[in-house]
Amino acid sequence: DVKVTQSSRYLVKRTGEKVFLECVQDMDHENMFWYRQDPGLGLRLIYFSYDVKMKEKGDIPEGYSVSREKKERFSLILESASTNQTSMYLCASSFLPFGDRGGYTFGSGTRLTVV
Amino acid sequence: DAKTTQPNSMESNEEEPVHLPCNHSTISGTDYIHWYRQLPSQGPEYVIHGLTSNVNNRMASLAIAEDRKSSTLILHRATLRDAAVYYCILNSNSGYALNFGKGTSLLVTP
């Protein structure tokens, strides 16, 4: 019954590596989002996309980029991983607009450690 | 989006009802009230949402004040599995992204 799938549950990468986090949804949602969650800071929005090939910066886009070539897939890219990007990364999707069409569906998260 | 205020933490006994409050005094007429919860080591999950009227679903009930400046998420019989962080969020129908605050950490004791 999994509807938003993140490619990895745990990931360890080295500083300077290019890192790809993949997210796939099967609900035909227009919106897709990437958040990161750190203790004491809550969930912070990195990027979101409301259509194929469209992207919008969230609150903390620095050091990240995204790609949405197909409606069901939204990728987060860390161009050159740094230790301060060690975090839990959460992907979500929703209908657009979603005010009255339910809310987000989240994936299980990817815990990324950069060493 | 307008801001919400929730208590940092609450505690409940198992099998008792739980009322989780949320204040949103600057809510606009088009803002929907959304509730999510996050169990330990999991992504948040949608619980319920509403605009003006009270709402019920299999997970919970949402009671919205007449002036819409506050709302309450009601868990009718708390179980140990309900221990989680609960987020109250506002979003307009034209909004794209939700801003999650710190939420309320609910502890359920046997």
Itemize the secondary structure elements and their pairings:
The complex is a heterodimer of chains A (115) and B (110).
Chain A: E1 4-6, E2 10-13, E3 19-25, E4 31-38, E5 42-49, E6 56-57, E7 64-70, E8 73-78, E9 87-94, E10 105-106, E11 110-114
Parallel strand pairs in A: 2-11
Antiparallel strand pairs in A: 1-3, 3-8, 4-5, 4-9, 5-6, 7-8, 9-10, 9-11
Chain B: E1 9-13, E2 18-23, E3 31-38, E4 45-50, E5 55-56, E6 61-64, E7 70-75, E8 84-92, E9 104-109
Parallel strand pairs in B: 1-9
Antiparallel strand pairs in B: 2-7, 3-4, 3-8, 5-6, 6-7, 8-9
Describe this protein's structure.
- The complex is a heterodimer of chains A (115) and B (110).
- Chain A is an all-beta fold and 115 residues long.
- Chain A contains no helices and 11 strands.
- In chain A, the strands form 2 sheets. In chain A, strands 2, 4, 5, 6, 9, 10 and 11 form a 7-stranded mixed β-sheet that branches.
- In chain B, the strands form 2 sheets. Chain B has a 5-stranded mixed β-sheet with strand order 1-9-8-3-4, with no helix packed on it.
- In chain B, strand 6 and strand 7 form a beta hairpin.
- Helix content of chain B is 0%, strand content 47%.
- The model of chain B has no long low-confidence stretch (mean pLDDT 91).
- Chains A and B meet through strand 4, strand 5 and strand 10 of A and strand 3 and strand 4 of B.
Offer a few descriptive terms:
heterodimer, A: 115 residues, mainly beta, seven-stranded mixed beta sheet, four-stranded antiparallel beta sheet, 0% helix, B: 110 residues, five-stranded mixed beta sheet, 9 strands, globular
